[in-house]
Specification:
Elements (H helix, E strand, L loop, with lengths): L1 E5 L5 H9 L7 E2 L13 E3 L1 H10 L4 H11 L4 E5 L10 H20 L2 E6 L2 E6 L6
Parallel strand pairs: 1-4, 1-5, 2-3, 3-4
Antiparallel strand pairs: 5-6
Helix pairs in contact: 2-4, 3-4
């Protein structure tokens, strides 16, 4: 498993395409996909949006993410960092942010490579990028 994180619009998708050979059209979109698609997808973009959708439907994103890590160990997962900045006033927004952070920790633990993208530059936090 590989995790690509970073702020919004930092070039995460372009990095995934360049490093792992995907096209954006091949990626499962977390904003719109069927939840079951992620268990067989090669690359999932906007995983943070899947988490928000799961919470809205009353499904545990933590358990879902654990299942994903068990069932799709070769996936490349792209998600926005949303835990920086001012803590939201609304409890539901704090929960979403906390669950997104927890899911990121679960995915990074299961990943052999973790990359943070800043201004289009991949910074390897785990793994050297030379494993493949």
């Amino acid at each position: 498993m590989k995790l690509i994180i970073g702020g919004a619009y930092q070039g995460k998708i372009a990095v995934a395409c360049r490093l792992f050979g995907f096209t954006e059209a091949e990626m499962v979109n977390g904003s719109t996909c069927d939840f079951e698609e992620v268990f067989t997808a090669g690359c999932i973009k906007s995983y943070h949006r899947i988490i928000a959708r799961l919470i809205a439907q009353g499904v545990s994103p933590i358990e879902f993410t654990k299942r994903l890590c068990l069932e799709n160990q070769d996936a490349v997962i792209i998600m926005d960092e949303i835990g920086c900045g001012i803590v939201p006033v609304e409890k539901s927004e704090r929960r979403r942010r906390e669950d997104t952070g927890r899911c990121g920790c679960i995915i990074s633990s299961a990943s052999d490579t973790v990359i943070r993208v800043i201004c289009g530059i991949p910074v390897f936090l785990k793994g050297s990028g030379n494993e493949d």
